[in-house]
Amino acid sequence: MNIMLFHSTYGLRPAVHAAAARLRGAGHEVHVPDLFDGHTFETVEEGMAFKDELGKDELLKRAVLAAAPYSERGLVYAGFSFGASTAQTLALGDEKARGLLLLHGTSDIAENAEVDELPVQLHVADPDPFETQDWLNSWYLQMQRTGADVEIYRYPGAGHLFTDPDLPDYDAASADLTWKVALGFLATL
């Protein structure tokens, strides 16, 4: 599978490279663009400030340019938190998308978004301060309306970015289960 993996607002950190290596080890081709031009951050607040400074349009442009050389072959879009929202936006706009793997995040869905049974898998903390229960319920219904085939996995007691071993949110058991389920999902695409 050809995977486009987007980083969180912390930037392109070791955990993203480790995730890409794990996916490559399972036989996937993985592309990991750096939307922040080498900037990484120690706190989510610093990363959010940088993201806001760059602006949504610029970041989307960078993501589209990163995916464009590979999209013709059919990409699985994936990402962590902010990167998941980026992946979702691109997957819903790419008629050749093969799948969508969301780790720790979702995004708004355009009213006219439509896909043909796009396989979507979301892994999220429960509760998650950035992905509230009400938001996830609404998101799920909207994704189904687009025609996506959605699975949601919730991890009670885990922190928001629970797959990153370098962050306080890390939860080893939840991270291991996430990767086991995600690799199984990717193997079906």
TrEMBL record:
SUPFAM superfamilies: alpha/beta-Hydrolases (SSF53474). InterPro entries: AB_hydrolase_fold, Dienelactn_hydro, Dienelactone_hydrolase-like. Its EC number is 3.1.-.-. One of its GO terms (molecular function) is hydrolase activity. Residues 3-188 form the Dienelactone hydrolase domain. Gene3D superfamilies: alpha/beta hydrolase (3.40.50.1820). This is Dienelactone hydrolase family protein. It comes from the Bacteria. Keywords: Hydrolase. Pfam families: DLH. PANTHER family: ALPHA_BETA-HYDROLASES SUPERFAMILY PROTEIN, CARBOXYMETHYLENEBUTENOLIDASE-RELATED. It comes from Streptomyces yanii.
